[in-house]
Amino acid sequence: MNQGNERTTSMSKTKGLVQMAIFAALIVVLAFTPFIGYIPLGFTRATIIHIPVIMGSLMLGPKKGAALGGVFGLTSFINNTINPTLTSFVFTPFYSLGEYSGGIGSLIICFVPRILIGVVPFYVYRLVKKLSKNNGVSSVGLIVAGLSGALTNTLLVMNLIFVFFRNDYAAANGITVKAVYGFILSIIGINGIPEAIVAAVITLVLGKTLMKKGVQERLGV
């Protein structure tokens, strides 16, 4: 009996690792395929890598979602170290732009928001389902989960930049310190809002299929 339980537990762990590996592989492919995962905009990079993290959170749970967010953060760290843009110092302590350089704040900015992308959508989706008393796949829940995941990334990253690097970030972009938060808000509007809308749409489309009970059973989720 114990051997049977151990075998079942082992198979469950193996399935979980395989599922994690699939999502992680997708994140890595997006991250290191030019102009797909990270889209350079000069002053920053737009991204769609948060989408597999959001889906991983919804399908695999917040712990595995957080681990996938960590993979996202690692790809961002590597990209900003070996293929830097003007302000990559805010994402890696190993890149400097003249007198401006990263530090411990760079690691916090690079990893903490990305890890939370794998946590927040799971609980947002569950809350929406609970409030709407929906026993099936919630379209509204998927939309809100997609929005929340993308905005978690954008809002935390940009506000943490203000907390840790406002002076250097302002100087690197050729603006005054007084104007830096307005500049950050403009990036949130120009970059973050479209990212969130795209995330909501894709999360809805993928979630309506992948989160059906029959599909999840066949996937072993």
From TrEMBL:
It comes from the Bacteria. The keyword Membrane applies. InterPro entries: ECF_trnsprt_substrate-spec. Gene3D superfamilies: 1.10.1760.20. GO terms for molecular function: transmembrane transporter activity. The keyword Transmembrane applies. Keywords: Membrane, Transmembrane, Transmembrane helix. The chain crosses the membrane at residues 20-44, 65-82, 102-125, 137-165, 180-206. Pfam families: ECF_trnsprt. This is ECF transporter S component. It comes from Coprococcus comes. The gene is panT.
